[in-house]
Protein backbone atom coordinates (compact mmCIF):
# COMPACT_ATOMS: atom_id res chain seq x y z
CA UNK A 1 0.00 0.00 0.00
CA UNK A 2 1.29 3.46 -0.92
CA UNK A 3 0.37 6.63 0.96
CA UNK A 4 0.59 10.14 -0.54
CA UNK A 5 2.13 13.00 1.50
CA UNK A 6 0.65 12.71 5.02
CA UNK A 7 1.39 16.31 6.15
CA UNK A 8 0.60 15.45 9.75
CA UNK A 9 -2.28 13.05 9.08
CA UNK A 10 -2.16 9.74 10.94
CA UNK A 11 -5.69 8.56 11.78
CA UNK A 12 -7.02 8.37 8.22
CA UNK A 13 -3.92 6.44 7.21
CA UNK A 14 -4.14 4.01 10.12
CA UNK A 15 -7.84 3.47 9.39
CA UNK A 16 -6.94 2.46 5.84
CA UNK A 17 -4.13 0.19 7.01
CA UNK A 18 -6.61 -1.54 9.31
CA UNK A 19 -9.16 -1.76 6.51
CA UNK A 20 -6.87 -3.15 3.78
CA UNK A 21 -4.42 -5.06 6.02
CA UNK A 22 -1.60 -4.58 3.50
CA UNK A 23 1.53 -6.74 3.69
CA UNK A 24 3.50 -3.51 3.78
CA UNK A 25 2.85 0.22 3.67
CA UNK A 26 5.05 2.91 2.14
CA UNK A 27 4.72 6.59 3.07
CA UNK A 28 5.86 8.84 0.20
CA UNK A 29 7.31 11.71 2.27
CA UNK A 30 6.31 15.07 3.77
CA UNK A 31 5.12 13.31 6.92
CA UNK A 32 5.65 16.47 9.01
CA UNK A 33 5.17 14.51 12.24
CA UNK A 34 6.23 15.99 15.55
CA UNK A 35 6.26 12.64 17.33
CA UNK A 36 8.46 9.66 16.51
CA UNK A 37 6.99 7.71 13.63
CA UNK A 38 7.25 4.40 15.52
CA UNK A 39 5.13 5.91 18.28
CA UNK A 40 2.44 7.19 15.91
CA UNK A 41 2.23 3.86 14.09
CA UNK A 42 2.86 1.53 17.01
CA UNK A 43 1.37 -1.86 16.32
CA UNK A 44 1.54 -1.36 12.54
CA UNK A 45 3.86 -3.88 10.92
CA UNK A 46 6.05 -3.35 7.86
CA UNK A 47 5.77 0.40 7.60
CA UNK A 48 8.35 1.85 5.22
CA UNK A 49 8.97 5.43 4.15
CA UNK A 50 10.93 7.93 2.14
CA UNK A 51 11.30 11.56 3.21
CA UNK A 52 9.90 14.64 1.49
CA UNK A 53 11.33 18.13 1.21
CA UNK A 54 9.25 19.39 4.14
CA UNK A 55 10.51 16.74 6.57
CA UNK A 56 13.53 18.95 7.29
CA UNK A 57 11.55 22.19 7.81
CA UNK A 58 11.46 21.79 11.59
CA UNK A 59 13.82 20.00 13.95
CA UNK A 60 10.91 17.99 15.45
CA UNK A 61 9.70 16.85 12.01
CA UNK A 62 13.24 15.87 11.12
CA UNK A 63 13.81 14.02 14.40
CA UNK A 64 10.52 12.10 14.08
CA UNK A 65 12.06 10.28 11.10
CA UNK A 66 15.83 10.60 11.12
CA UNK A 67 16.24 9.92 14.85
CA UNK A 68 13.58 7.21 14.78
CA UNK A 69 14.19 3.56 15.56
CA UNK A 70 12.44 2.98 12.22
CA UNK A 71 15.22 4.70 10.31
CA UNK A 72 16.13 1.26 8.97
CA UNK A 73 12.70 1.20 7.32
CA UNK A 74 13.62 4.21 5.21
CA UNK A 75 13.78 3.07 1.58
CA UNK A 76 15.90 6.03 0.43
CA UNK A 77 18.86 5.07 -1.75
CA UNK A 78 18.20 1.38 -1.31
CA UNK A 79 16.34 -1.52 -2.83
CA UNK A 80 14.35 -3.79 -0.57
CA UNK A 81 12.33 -6.85 -1.41
CA UNK A 82 8.82 -6.38 0.00
CA UNK A 83 6.56 -9.41 -0.43
CA UNK A 84 8.73 -10.54 -3.35
CA UNK A 85 8.59 -7.18 -5.15
CA UNK A 86 11.83 -5.19 -5.35
CA UNK A 87 11.18 -1.60 -4.33
CA UNK A 88 13.75 1.17 -4.87
CA UNK A 89 13.37 4.46 -2.99
CA UNK A 90 14.57 8.02 -3.53
CA UNK A 91 13.42 10.65 -1.05
CA UNK A 92 13.68 14.44 -1.25
CA UNK A 93 13.67 16.88 -4.12
CA UNK A 94 16.12 18.49 -6.52
CA UNK A 95 17.61 21.67 -5.04
CA UNK A 96 19.81 24.08 -7.03
CA UNK A 97 22.33 24.38 -4.16
CA UNK A 98 23.02 20.62 -4.38
CA UNK A 99 21.79 19.36 -7.73
CA UNK A 100 19.09 20.61 -9.99
CA UNK A 101 18.71 19.26 -13.52
CA UNK A 102 18.34 22.82 -14.87
CA UNK A 103 21.43 24.27 -13.19
CA UNK A 104 23.61 21.18 -12.80
CA UNK A 105 25.51 19.45 -10.01
CA UNK A 106 27.00 21.60 -7.21
CA UNK A 107 27.94 18.81 -4.79
CA UNK A 108 27.99 15.05 -5.22
CA UNK A 109 27.63 14.16 -1.56
CA UNK A 110 27.54 15.59 1.95
CA UNK A 111 31.30 15.24 2.40
CA UNK A 112 31.94 17.42 -0.63
CA UNK A 113 29.41 19.95 0.64
CA UNK A 114 31.10 20.08 4.04
CA UNK A 115 34.48 20.61 2.42
CA UNK A 116 32.97 23.39 0.30
CA UNK A 117 31.77 25.09 3.47
CA UNK A 118 35.20 25.04 5.11
CA UNK A 119 34.08 23.13 8.15
CA UNK A 120 31.67 25.89 9.18
CA UNK A 121 28.57 24.71 10.96
CA UNK A 122 25.35 25.34 9.10
CA UNK A 123 22.91 23.30 11.16
CA UNK A 124 19.75 24.39 9.37
CA UNK A 125 21.33 24.06 5.93
CA UNK A 126 22.76 20.69 6.79
CA UNK A 127 19.31 19.50 7.86
CA UNK A 128 17.80 20.79 4.62
CA UNK A 129 20.49 18.95 2.70
CA UNK A 130 19.24 15.68 4.14
CA UNK A 131 16.04 16.01 2.13
CA UNK A 132 17.75 16.98 -1.14
CA UNK A 133 18.45 14.54 -3.95
CA UNK A 134 22.20 13.92 -4.10
CA UNK A 135 23.98 12.73 -7.23
CA UNK A 136 25.74 9.97 -5.26
CA UNK A 137 22.41 8.39 -4.20
CA UNK A 138 20.98 8.66 -7.70
CA UNK A 139 24.12 7.13 -9.21
CA UNK A 140 24.01 4.23 -6.74
CA UNK A 141 20.37 3.44 -7.49
CA UNK A 142 21.07 3.57 -11.22
CA UNK A 143 23.31 0.50 -10.75
CA UNK A 144 20.56 -1.49 -9.03
CA UNK A 145 17.51 -3.45 -10.25
CA UNK A 146 13.96 -3.01 -9.00
CA UNK A 147 10.34 -3.54 -10.02
CA UNK A 148 8.95 -0.35 -8.49
CA UNK A 149 10.57 3.03 -7.85
CA UNK A 150 9.05 5.16 -5.08
CA UNK A 151 10.05 8.83 -5.12
CA UNK A 152 8.89 12.04 -3.53
CA UNK A 153 9.79 14.24 -6.51
CA UNK A 154 7.90 13.69 -9.79
CA UNK A 155 9.07 12.22 -13.10
CA UNK A 156 8.25 13.94 -16.42
CA UNK A 157 4.64 12.71 -16.45
CA UNK A 158 3.93 15.67 -14.15
CA UNK A 159 4.35 19.18 -15.58
CA UNK A 160 6.81 20.02 -12.81
CA UNK A 161 8.56 16.65 -13.06
CA UNK A 162 12.04 15.62 -14.24
CA UNK A 163 13.24 13.32 -17.02
CA UNK A 164 16.19 12.32 -14.82
CA UNK A 165 13.70 10.29 -12.78
CA UNK A 166 12.29 8.65 -15.94
CA UNK A 167 15.86 7.63 -16.72
CA UNK A 168 16.40 6.28 -13.22
CA UNK A 169 13.32 4.05 -13.53
CA UNK A 170 14.65 2.80 -16.87
CA UNK A 171 18.09 2.02 -15.39
CA UNK A 172 16.44 0.10 -12.57
CA UNK A 173 14.26 -1.82 -15.02
CA UNK A 174 11.25 -0.65 -12.96
CA UNK A 175 7.77 -1.00 -14.43
CA UNK A 176 6.14 1.50 -12.10
CA UNK A 177 6.88 4.79 -10.34
CA UNK A 178 4.76 5.94 -7.41
CA UNK A 179 5.37 9.52 -6.26
CA UNK A 180 4.00 12.29 -4.04
CA UNK A 181 5.06 15.94 -3.54
CA UNK A 182 2.55 17.67 -5.84
CA UNK A 183 -0.56 16.52 -3.93
CA UNK A 184 -2.19 15.62 -7.19
CA UNK A 185 -3.72 12.29 -8.12
CA UNK A 186 -3.15 10.96 -11.61
CA UNK A 187 -1.98 7.93 -13.53
CA UNK A 188 0.26 8.29 -16.54
CA UNK A 189 2.82 6.59 -18.73
CA UNK A 190 6.32 7.97 -19.44
CA UNK A 191 7.82 8.13 -22.94
CA UNK A 192 9.99 5.17 -21.94
CA UNK A 193 6.88 3.10 -21.18
CA UNK A 194 7.08 3.17 -17.36
CA UNK A 195 3.71 3.49 -15.60
CA UNK A 196 3.30 6.33 -13.08
CA UNK A 197 0.94 6.86 -10.17
CA UNK A 198 0.95 10.30 -8.52
CA UNK A 199 -0.86 10.48 -5.19
CA UNK A 200 -2.73 13.29 -3.45
CA UNK A 201 -2.58 14.34 0.20
CA UNK A 202 -2.66 11.24 2.43
CA UNK A 203 -4.26 9.40 -0.46
CA UNK A 204 -4.07 5.62 -0.39
CA UNK A 205 -3.14 3.42 -3.33
CA UNK A 206 -3.70 -0.19 -2.39
CA UNK A 207 -1.93 -2.53 -4.78
CA UNK A 208 -2.81 -6.18 -5.31
CA UNK A 209 0.74 -7.56 -5.39
CA UNK A 210 -0.13 -10.68 -7.37
CA UNK A 211 -2.05 -8.67 -9.98
CA UNK A 212 0.95 -6.32 -10.30
CA UNK A 213 3.37 -9.22 -10.74
CA UNK A 214 1.14 -10.84 -13.38
CA UNK A 215 0.35 -7.58 -15.22
CA UNK A 216 1.20 -7.83 -18.91
CA UNK A 217 0.81 -4.14 -19.70
CA UNK A 218 0.33 -0.74 -18.05
CA UNK A 219 -3.47 -1.02 -18.08
CA UNK A 220 -3.20 -4.19 -16.02
CA UNK A 221 -0.73 -2.45 -13.68
CA UNK A 222 -3.26 0.35 -13.03
CA UNK A 223 -6.02 -2.24 -12.61
CA UNK A 224 -4.01 -3.77 -9.74
CA UNK A 225 -4.78 -0.62 -7.69
CA UNK A 226 -7.60 0.63 -5.56
CA UNK A 227 -7.38 4.35 -4.78
CA UNK A 228 -9.05 6.27 -2.01
CA UNK A 229 -10.45 9.74 -2.30
CA UNK A 230 -8.17 11.57 0.11
CA UNK A 231 -10.82 14.12 1.01
CA UNK A 232 -13.18 11.71 2.74
CA UNK A 233 -11.23 8.46 2.79
CA UNK A 234 -13.81 6.81 0.54
CA UNK A 235 -12.94 4.66 -2.43
CA UNK A 236 -12.43 6.22 -5.85
CA UNK A 237 -12.17 3.01 -7.81
ZN1 LIG B 1 7.00 17.68 -1.05
ZN1 LIG C 1 3.81 17.50 0.33
Description:
This protein is α/β, with parallel strands linked by helices and 237 residues long. It has a single domain (2-227), classed as 4-Layer Sandwich (Purple Acid Phosphatase, chain A, domain 2), CATH 3.60.21. It is built from nine helices and 13 strands. It has helices at 11-20, 37-40, 59-66, 110-116, 123-129, 135-141, 163-172, 209-214, 218-223; strands at 2-3, 25-27, 47-49, 78-82, 85-90, 99-100, 104-105, 148-151, 176-179, 186-189, 195-198, 204-207, 225-227. The strands form three sheets. A six-stranded mixed sheet has the order 4-5-8-9-11-10. The protein has a five-stranded mixed sheet with strand order 3-2-1-12-13. Strand 8, helix 7 and strand 9 (176-179) form a beta-alpha-beta unit. The chain is globular. The two termini are 15 Å apart. Bound molecules: zinc ion (2 copies). The site of one zinc ion has 7 residues, from loops.
Average pLDDT: 94
Query: What's the overall geometry?
Result: globular
Helix proportion: 25-40%
Supply Rg.
Answer: 17 Å
Q: What fold name goes in the CATH topology slot?
A: Purple Acid Phosphatase, chain A, domain 2
What does the secondary structure layout of this molecule look like, with pairings?
Layout: E1 2-3, H1 11-20, E2 25-27, H2 37-40, E3 47-49, H3 59-66, E4 78-82, E5 85-90, E6 99-100, E7 104-105, H4 110-116, H5 123-129, H6 135-141, E8 148-151, H7 163-172, E9 176-179, E10 186-189, E11 195-198, E12 204-207, H8 209-214, H9 218-223, E13 225-227
Parallel strand pairs: 1-2, 2-3, 5-8, 8-9, 9-11
Antiparallel strand pairs: 1-12, 4-5, 6-7, 10-11, 12-13
Bound molecules: zinc ion (2 copies).
The site of one zinc ion has 7 residues, from loops.
Amino acid sequence: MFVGDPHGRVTIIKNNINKYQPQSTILLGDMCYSKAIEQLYSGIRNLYWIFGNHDSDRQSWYDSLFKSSWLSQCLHASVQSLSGVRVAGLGGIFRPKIWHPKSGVMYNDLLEWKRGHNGKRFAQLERTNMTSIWPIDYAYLATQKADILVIHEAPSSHKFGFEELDDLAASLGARLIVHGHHHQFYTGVLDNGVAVVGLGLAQIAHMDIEAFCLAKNNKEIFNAFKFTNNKNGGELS
